[in-house]
Predict the structure.
Amino acid sequence: MPERPPPAANRPPTRRISLSVDVVLLTPHGRRLTTLLQRSADPRARERWELAWDAPHGEETIDDAAARVARTALGAAPALVEQVGAFGDRRRHPGGADVSIAYLALVPAGAPAPVGGDTAWFPVEELPALAPRQREMLDGALAAVRARLDQAPIAFRLLPPTFTLTQLQEVYELLLGRRLHKASFRRALQAAWLVEPTDEWRSEGRGRPAQLFRYAPRRRRGGRRGVRFDGLGG
Amino acid sequence: MPERPPPAANRPPTRRISLSVDVVLLTPHGRRLTTLLQRSADPRARERWELAWDAPHGEETIDDAAARVARTALGAAPALVEQVGAFGDRRRHPGGADVSIAYLALVPAGAPAPVGGDTAWFPVEELPALAPRQREMLDGALAAVRARLDQAPIAFRLLPPTFTLTQLQEVYELLLGRRLHKASFRRALQAAWLVEPTDEWRSEGRGRPAQLFRYAPRRRRGGRRGVRFDGLGG
DNA sequence: TCAATAGTGTCTGTTAGACATTATGGA
DNA sequence: TCCATAATGTCTAACAGACACTATTGA
């Protein structure tokens, strides 16, 4: 039986550390998922790109700080801001923070882009070099988006208030990284009572116009079926 | 078009904050999920119970600190330690930490219990009063366990190396909070190639002895099917 | 007219859940 | 013997994916 030390003493944690709140802003651009990066504000490293970040101000909570950082970088409030997790290994952060809290923020497609050469949307498969800590946070945010896709209305936050079912399916395909079957997708969507049709139609270019829908979840009917043993690799 | 402030200045986050790492240790006890609580080390509040927690020491990362806190509280290393998230609202933490990082730690059923009246396992439905921050972290850890059940081998970390299929199903029922169909459960398990039989059998009390299995995931065959629109409430 | 996209009906193989049955031990 | 639990076979309804077809627009 190993020796067991007494429980940690209940003193305030005296050692204070530096903290950053970093936000991964995401929006679809065409058939690609893109993320917002800013040029470093450090005058010695103006050519480097960074995730938007800052330390919490004054009495702000970390959620407050994330909302502020997102709003400042984007010029408007995103549709959803959610925590991803804390990153406190020894990888480098642009501000030298000991611990960084990552947030993801979703921006509807077609929202006005921030102007100026200091801020730009990059496809997530073609990113410039980032500080290792921020690279890790970005990968974590992408994994979180995919994991939460069927738990929270992620896809609807990446679309304007009304959208076509093809747009919705494209967002799912974007996030899942695979093609979906059109008829099955619509059947499952109808069975879930998640969207309702508007009386508007949109004609884009050639084919038949598509009906516009809005996100309007009704109460679920029937419980979940089965247990998923997928994803239990090693 | 709203005025857009310049991006956050790239100065080190000078304001330093106090940080705690809090661990939610979980193990099944019979048909209940239980969590480890310790009596407060504060001599003025010895009757209060707390999650195990501490500030990171010296050069420790937050993952290191979580592993240490878990090992210290339990007297042995848990089977899995994973981050839940950061909690930095204004709710009270026992150590007055500005920000707390929650971890969950899984302990196999039947592992030796910590001795002494300062540490005890409580069923998660019958907890004593906790500091509001820690109560929030515990609820977050339980939600994370349920959410990750089909993404990571959570259930197997709550069981000894060999186990019966009934035990495994009981862990799933414990975490999901609902009964599962025995035949369906076993069919899905077999199709997923997650466990392999040993040549041992266990006789518990009355009925026919059950074969023991071990967790031995084989490579997946075939991709995921469909999209889940469950869980998209509102 | 053709090309392109939206939207739907039908068929089929797979799977979840219900039910029943057999197997094997202890009391 | 009876009872309790393990383990499995069969049936059915639900569902995912394939395919085909109709509908409606612009070029």
